[in-house]
Task: structure prediction
Amino acid sequence: MPKPAAVRRLPAKPDLELLRALSNTAAVSGDEGPVRKLVLDAIRPYADEVKVDALGNVLAVKHAAKGRSAPRLLLAAHMDEVGLMIVDHDSE
Result:
């Protein structure tokens, strides 16, 4: 029986620095760029393909090892957060 290919796994404990950075980075709806960069940097080592679509969604794919089948899995999350943007200021 062939030996299964080595699979890089996520750490058993969450990366608290990443969670802290994601939580503390401003990402109001329509301006998720800084959080998108964090997500892209975090996911690239684990994915075979990574792209950002026209709406700013991060799409990552991890292929099964050659000759092996694997169940399909979708993980979905929001990058934005509730916020307020000031677009004009009247000093009166």
Remarks:
- The first strand starts at residue 49 and ends at 52.
- The radius of gyration is 18 Å.
- Residues 27 and 33 are 7 Å apart (CA to CA).
